[in-house]
Amino acid sequence: MPFCGVGVHGTSHAFGLWGSSLDDLWAATRAGVLHHWDGDTWSEVATGGISVTPVRGSGPNDVWAIAPGVAVVHWDGVSWSTTPTLDAVDIWAASPNDATACARRSGRG
Prior knowledge:
This protein is mostly beta strands.
């Protein structure tokens, strides 16, 4: 794979890699910045100023990411939408209409 061992925009701290194909990969850096691989180059993706970490999806028009303690964000192939949430730490997506976020137990209540 041509991107193995290549830093994302000069950093080697990418994690949360997910992709629907070799020319549609998404990666979040430890700084919470989201990047997209189009088969040739990495580009930084604007998420409305929200830092994201885990990235998951079910296809090129169904990408999900978590902004821990802030929101779940969703890419529909055109734009990002945001759903506020305080406790989500990871997400799994089976389809655009079937995604499940998991939360860390806070110990309250």
